[in-house]
Amino acid sequence: MTSSPATAPAAPEAEHAPASYYKHHIFFCLNERANGENACGHHGAQQAFDRCKAQVKAAGLAGPGGVRVNKAGCLDRCAAGPVAVVYPESVWYSFVDVQDIDEIVSSHLKQGQVVERLLTPPQLGR
Asked: What global pTM score does this model have?
């Protein structure tokens, strides 16, 4: 009679999902189009990215466990541009000036409160 190999007990499931390396990622569309089509890069997106990066750093939010400010190519929401998206919540923002960026940093990235007035309308895309 052959014996079957002993089956190892199943590993206990993790009680919590592993922590993300960053609490938030914010991606700024910096796309520019040469053919004259509307694009975020033509509406102050680089300045907004620079402002956000500086504000996040000044607030002590940058780095592991905090906030990562990223550049992105086309996010395919040009009609609402300029736009940025915050993950992991998938919150899309349309912004006009640096005061809007400051509000996104202080409310959403620092306090976890979505800035309702800056939400990108869901129907606006390309």
From this structure: 0.82
